[in-house]
């Protein structure tokens, strides 16, 4: 008999946090998850849940923040309905635990969580993939997490340190890295993605995958690409992903800058792709140029599982995930020249690319197997 669990905190777009949660819960044999999906999501989250045969319900989770005052007012106006939906679904489905995926969802669902824990003994668990800021509001949240939670599961040591920094007791926190379904290497194919976008078998493909936002370092990626292209003519750069509603103007400016440089043939925006597996099967290296304390980038885990070398900035959880010189290289943040030099090094040394790819695959098998890691998360939830 499976234990029903209510999962709160899926965002409006099917990015890293959403994929991490959905794929992890899918591989738990003793837990049946029910997901709350924001009524303002763009459709990609519902599509991902449907493709993975996961049950969900609509809930008016909205944006809370100073950047969009109108959105915040709308979200506040919907809070009573949100609280009602959470309590009704939790009790109706007889959920024994609520799992929060981020602190913003906890802020929105704070009241029903307290009521469900106090009156119906519903356990509260935090499965975190973000490093909290060390300011007063987050320290206050840390105190509530301490008092209300049975367990805090962090997807990197960097996230764990962040929660300890806002006052969560260290003994409450368990680190479980993001997992990945490890496809057999014999099934890899390099041609699907290349054929679709007109890349030849001789092109060296360097990829950025993720949201197009300033803190992801995409501007550094484009600057590094420009430097490399001045010295190499057999290299192409692909940008896989798009911007959320907050950063559509930023994405437009990125595209315009590439067009102004006359490099639209060599730096290709693919938009968001649901079949990112075809990208990893086709590329020669991945760049993760984060400018912020990225907690545990899924891109690194996914790239290693497909034997793709990684170039990442020395921030957050990336330092834990990349074995310097074995599975990839670490560079300083906001350092496009360092990124360019490292790309050139890997372009000129195909043997090193293969060696790092194999090293990454071995590391992924040891650390990032979805089945093993999902069982660890499941055990923490059930033991709460």
Please describe the topology of this protein.
Elements: E1 3-8, H1 16-26, E2 31-38, H2 44-51, E3 55-59, H3 69-77, H4 79-92, E4 97-100, H5 103-108, H6 110-120, E5 123-128, H7 136-148, E6 149-154, H8 157-165, E7 173-175, H9 191-197, E8 204-209, H10 218-229, E9 235-240, H11 248-260, E10 267-271, H12 276-282, E11 285-288, H13 298-305, E12 310-313, H14 318-321, E13 328-331, H15 336-348, H16 350-367, H17 370-382
Parallel strand pairs: 1-2, 1-4, 2-3, 4-5, 5-6, 6-7, 8-9, 8-11, 9-10, 11-12, 12-13
Helix-strand makeup class: alpha/beta
What would the average pLDDT be, to the nearest integer?
94
Helix content: 40-55%
SS element count, helices: 17
Low-confidence stretches: none
- What portion of residues belong to β-strands? 15-25%
Order of helices and strands: EHEHEHHEHHEHEHEHEHEHEHEHEHEHHH
> Oligomeric state of the chains?
single chain
CATH H-level homologous superfamily name of the largest domain:
Glycogen Phosphorylase B
Specify the CATH architecture of the largest domain: 3-Layer(aba) Sandwich
Q: Any idea what the shape is?
A: globular
**Most strands sheet:** 7 strands, parallel
CATH fold-level assignment of the largest domain:
Rossmann fold
Number of strands: 13
C-alpha termini separation: 18 Å
Can you tell me about this structure?
With 384 residues, the protein is α/β, with parallel strands linked by helices. It has 2 domains: 3-179 and 369-382, Rossmann fold (3-Layer(aba) Sandwich); 185-367, Glycogen Phosphorylase B (Rossmann fold), CATH 3.40.50.2000. 46% of the residues lie in helices and 17% in strands. It has helices spanning 16-26, 44-51, 69-77, 79-92, 103-108, 110-120, 136-148, 157-165, 191-197, 218-229, 248-260, 276-282, 298-305, 318-321, 336-348, 350-367, 370-382, and strands at 3-8, 31-38, 55-59, 97-100, 123-128, 149-154, 173-175, 204-209, 235-240, 267-271, 285-288, 310-313, 328-331. It has a 7-stranded parallel sheet, with helices on both faces. A 6-stranded parallel sheet has the order 10-9-8-11-12-13, with helices on both faces. α14 links the parallel β12 and β13. α1 (16-26) crosses α17, α4 (79-92) runs parallel beside α6 (110-120) and α13 crosses α16. 45% of the residues are buried. The model has no long low-confidence stretch (mean pLDDT 94).
């Amino acid at each position: 008999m499976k234990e029903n669990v209510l999962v709160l905190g899926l965002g409006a777009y099917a990015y890293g946090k959403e994929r991490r949660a959905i794929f992890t819960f899918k591989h738990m044999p003793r837990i049946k998850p029910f997901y709350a999906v924001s009524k303002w999501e763009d459709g990609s989250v519902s599509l991902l849940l449907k493709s993975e045969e996961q049950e969900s319900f609509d809930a008016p989770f909205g944006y809370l923040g100073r950047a969009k005052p109108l959105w915040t007012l709308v979200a506040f106006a919907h809070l009573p309905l949100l609280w009602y939906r959470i309590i009704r679904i939790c009790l109706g489905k007889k959920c024994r635990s609520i799992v929060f995926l981020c602190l913003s969802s906890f802020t929105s669902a704070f009241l029903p969580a307290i009521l469900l824990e106090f009156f119906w003994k519903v356990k509260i668990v935090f499965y975190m993939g973000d490093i909290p800021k060390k300011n007063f509001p987050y320290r206050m949240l840390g105190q509530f997490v301490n008092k209300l939670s049975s367990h805090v599961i962090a997807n990197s040591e960097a996230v764990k340190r962040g929660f300890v920094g806002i006052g969560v007791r260290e003994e409450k926190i368990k680190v479980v890295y993001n997992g990945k379904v490890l496809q057999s290497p014999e099934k890899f194919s390099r041609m699907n993605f290349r054929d679709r976008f007109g890349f030849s078998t001789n092109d060296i493909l360097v990829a950025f995958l993720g949201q197009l936002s300033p803190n992801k370092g995409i501007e550094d990626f484009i600057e590094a690409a420009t430097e490399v292209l001045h010295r190499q003519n057999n290299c192409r750069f692909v940008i896989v992903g798009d911007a959320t509603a907050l950063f559509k103007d930023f994405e437009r400016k990125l595209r315009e800058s590439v067009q102004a440089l006359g490099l639209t043939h060599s730096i290709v925006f693919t938009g968001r792709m649901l079949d990112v597996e075809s990208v990893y099967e086709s590329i020669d290296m991945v760049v993760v140029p984060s400018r912020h304390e990225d907690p545990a980038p899924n891109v690194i885990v996914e790239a290693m599982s497909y034997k793709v070398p990684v170039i990442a900035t020395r921030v957050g959880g990336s330092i834990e995930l990349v074995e310097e010189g074995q599975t990839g290289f670490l560079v300083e943040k906001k350092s496009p020249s360092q990124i360019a030099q490292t790309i050139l090094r890997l372009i000129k040394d195909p043997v090193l690319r293969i060696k790092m790819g194999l090293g990454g695959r071995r590391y992924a098998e040891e650390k990032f197997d979805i089945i093993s890691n999902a069982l660890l998360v499941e055990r923490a939830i059930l033991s709460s």
